[in-house]
Amino acid sequence: MTERKEVNGMKKVVALVLALMLSLGMFSGAFAVNEDVEGEIVIASSMYQFVLDEMAELLKKEFPNLNVEFYYKGTTDLISQLSGEMGPDHTGLLSVDMLLVAEPAYSLELKDYGYLHKFDVSVKDQLAFPYDPDGYWYPVRVCNMVLAYNPEKVSAEELPKTFKEFAENPAMKGVISMGNPLTSGTAFAAVSALTEKYGMEYLDALRANNVMIESGSTALGKLESGECKEIMILEESVLKKRKEEGSKLAVIYPEDGNIMIPSTAMIVAEEKSKNANTAACEAIADWLFSEAGQTAIVNGYMHSVIKGFGKLPYDSVSTEQLISSDMGVNWENAYHNRNTLVDEWNKRVNN
C-alpha cells in the first residue's frame, strides 16, 4: 500500500512538472504549432497543383489560425498578370502576398521595381544554390530540364544525347517536342541557357527540325504513343509518371549539361501586397526551408535546395551529380534580355 501511494505521489509530481513546463513553453517545438500566426495570405506558384494541395494540408496543421490560399499559374502567365497589376509606373497593388515562381530572373525584376520584402532564412548557409545577398529572394526548390524517350518504342542508342543534337540532328525532324517559353518559366529558362551557349541559331535549328511546341502532358502522351521519339521536358514530369502510372518512359541527362532551375520564394512588400501580412509570409518561408517543407518538395519530384539533404525525388540521380553537370542559366541575361529572347523566339520558331 505504501509503495502504491509513493508511485501515485510521484505521478502527481511528474504531472505538475510537465504542466509547468508546458505553461512556460519549454516543449513548444514538440507539442505546439504556430498558433500565433494569424490572418490570410495568398501564394501564387507554378508548382504542380498536387504539390500545392499537399502543402496546403500540411500548412493547415502547422498554422491552424492562418488561412493560406494557393493558386497555380505558369510563371510567364503570372508575369503578364502581375505586370498588369503593377501598371506602367510600377506602383499598383498586387493580388498576392507571396510568390513561388519557376525562375530567378523574375525575382531580379521585382527587386528592381521595389516590390519585394527583405527576409532571412536560418538555412541560407546550407543552400546549394545562390540567393539574393540582400535577402529579397531564396531558391526553394530545383526543377531540372532534361531529355526523355520511350524505351518501348525506340532504343536510346538511336537518340541524341545532347540538347544541341536534339535540335540539330536531321533524323529527329518532326519527332521532337518541347514546352513553350512564352507560357512556361522553366522552358524560358532553358531557351535562355541554350541560346546563350549556342547562339540564336539554336532556335533556327529547332524550327528546321519541326519541333512541336506543347504542354508537358501532351508531349508525354506522344512519347507513349510513339508520335515523338524524344522530348525536352522537366525531369519531375517523367519521374511522376514512372512512379504513379508505372510508365517506362526514361530520362536522358544531356551530355552537354542538364539545366537546373532553382525556383525562388519571394515575399511581396507589405505596402504592395494583397493582405499586408509579411509576418505570416516569413513564417511560411521558415516552414518551406524546414525538413518538412523540403520533404514536400522532394515528394513533388523536385530536388531540395539544401546541401546534403539526404532525400531525392523518386528514381532520380543525386542532386550533387546534377549540380556538377549543370549547364547553368545566366539569370541577369534572362532578366535583361527577356523581351529580346521572346522576339527572337517569335521570329525564328513561331513565325
Quick summary of this structure?
The chain is of the alpha/beta class and 351 residues long.
CATH fold field value of the largest domain: D-Maltodextrin-Binding Protein, domain 2
* CATH-defined architecture of the largest domain: 3-Layer(aba) Sandwich
What oligomeric state do the depicted chains represent? single chain
What fraction of the residues are assigned to beta strands by DSSP?
5-15%
Number of helices: 15
Radius of gyration: 24 Å
Distance between the first and last residues' Cα:
94 Å
> On the 0-100 scale, what is the average pLDDT?
91
Largest sheet: 9 strands, mixed
The helicity comes to 40-55%
CATH C-level category of the largest domain: Alpha Beta
Dominant shape: globular
Number of domains in the coordinates? 2
Question: What does this 3D model show about the protein?
Answer:
- The chain has 351 residues and is of the alpha/beta class.
- The chain folds into 2 domains: 35-142 and 261-324, 3-Layer(aba) Sandwich (D-Maltodextrin-Binding Protein, domain 2); 143-260 and 329-350, 3-Layer(aba) Sandwich (D-Maltodextrin-Binding Protein, domain 2).
- The chain contains 15 helices and 9 strands.
- Strands 1, 2, 3, 4, 5, 6, 7, 8 and 9 form a 9-stranded mixed beta sheet that branches.
- Helix 8 runs parallel beside helix 15 (338-350).
- The longest helix is centred in the first third of the chain and has 22 residues, at 2-23.
- It is globular.
- It starts with a helix and ends with a helix.
- The model is unreliable at 1-32 (pLDDT under 50).
